[in-house]
Amino acid sequence: MIDPDGNAPTGVDPRRVGTAGRMLVALLLLGVLPAFLRLWPIDHSAPHPEFVPDTHLVRNALHMAADRDLIPPAGTYSTYPYLLSYALVPVYAADYVIGKSQGLWADGQGYGDHLRENPWRAHRLARILFALIASLTPMFVFLGCRAAGLRQGAWLAAWLAATSLLHVHLSLHERPWGPMMAPLAACLWGAIVHVRTGSLRSLLGSGFAAAIAASMHQAGLPFLGITGLAWAFAPSEHVGSLQRRVRGGVLAVLLFLVTAAALGYPYYFIHGDAVDVAGGTHMREELDSVAIGGQMFVFHFRAATFTHLAKAFIGYDPALLALGLGGIALSLRRRALLPGVIFVLAWAVLFMTNINEHCLLYT
Question: Fewer Cβ within 10 Å of end Cβ, the chain: N or C?
């Protein structure tokens, strides 16, 4: 019983009560809230998901299952890396088995016919999976902030990640943008731990998380830079000898390459790169660019891009943008956060002044 003064029940350690309360808050903030905010509006636009033009992750996964070929040539069904399609294959396999047990179809052909007539079923399953993956982002943000030494600030950062309008929006489509933020946050977490401790495990974890993001979309490939910056900023007294530092860096890069190649780009070893690229071959011929798996990045400055994206950022969530800019300034005082800050600034300079087909289409 609780006494009249409101003290903890007799025989109960108040520290356990406080720990249980913190665990409940953590569960709600880091797990339930992010998932709820992303799953509640998951049926937007149903049953007509085709308003999003690049839902080829769904198509890729379904063809992998139908053709019984997990490594089709790049660009055949999708220009994205294959990890998210691989994640969808068992989801569709389970849906097939459940539907067959309910008598909705008799075989794989019947399942395919059903999805062609009702494509929303396949799209909805993909949205749910991607939203759940994206919901992991606040947890990794919290872990990274706590590793950097923040206390209340870690809870605030997790709240902002959980409730960010932009992140919620990008988590509601059959596209890689929302899901890949989770491994990005995990990559930052590992980088922070490595700068503070110099541990090899944290460096490898950061590189592995970067590879997972790169296996979702080509834009994740530069995330290895976060791991590299952490490797460079880790104090020598934590890392040890130069030989040990070099060995750790080499292992992290090798882990990144092997993981990304196996999970995202296995077609390179069988079919080579894609022949066609998103955006058109004319842009690739006229401008300096690099193409990986059918996705192209053009190296070309365009001032109008900054205006366009700045308006979009302010329009989405001006308060969050102001807090983010203030956070960057404050983060400069913490060595463990420097890899993330430097990467964010370099990323912003590059992509907010770069020309690409999306800006050409919408500006």
Answer: N
